[in-house]
Amino acid sequence: MITFKHYTVAVHDLDQAVADYKSRFGMTAIGEPAHNSIGNFTYQPVGFNGQVMCHLICPVSDESPIAKLMKERINPFNPHGEGIYLLAYESDDTEGFVKQVTDNGGRVNRAPNGGNAWVHPTSSNFVLMEIYPKKA
User: What residues contact residue 100 under an 8 Å CB cut-off, 6+ apart?
Assistant: First the structure.
């Protein structure tokens, strides 16, 4: 069984995005901002009543994969290239899900030490999907 967990939005100003999500949507920060050293970004989970609905992520350098993606998205209506970055799902059978995707022509990247899997955007209409094992 696959369960939707949260969506992730790439932003150019994390503090401003957190303030906007609070004033516009009523979402509040959950926990403290954190840094992801692999992706070289800072993130802040936000949501309702302590339940995470969204991760706001902001690249720390121009070399971050997030920054590179945002640069590709820049246009007159989106001058910072912000937008949906990832949809996250929890799975009872991550291995089975990965097999289904790859057996049907999809591409999947795996974490070096197992666990999480990422469905490549070219396999999902250009949406990066993260699938992680259901916590016991």
Answer: none
- Residue-level pLDDT at 113: 76
User: Residue 89 in contact with residue 2, Cβ under 8 Å?
Assistant: yes
Predicted TM-score (pTM) of the model is 0.90
- The list of the chain residues with pLDDT below 50 reads none
**Three-state DSSP class for residue 80:** coil
The pair of structure tokens assigned to 129 is: 């999907």
- 101 contacts 108 by C-beta, under 8 angstroms: yes
Beta strands at 51-59 and 2-10: parallel, antiparallel or unpaired: parallel
CA-based R_g, the chain, Å? 16
What DSSP line would sit under 9-64, residue for residue? EE-S-HHHHHHHHHHHH--EE-S--EEETTTTEEEEEEEETTEEEEEEEEESSTTS
Pair 103, 81 in one domain: no
58 and 76 co-located in one domain: yes
Q: How far is CA 12 from CA 28, 81, 128, 136, in A?
A: 19, 8, 19, 35
The answer on 103 and 87 residing in a single domain is no
Q: Which residue has the tokens 């100003």?
A: 13
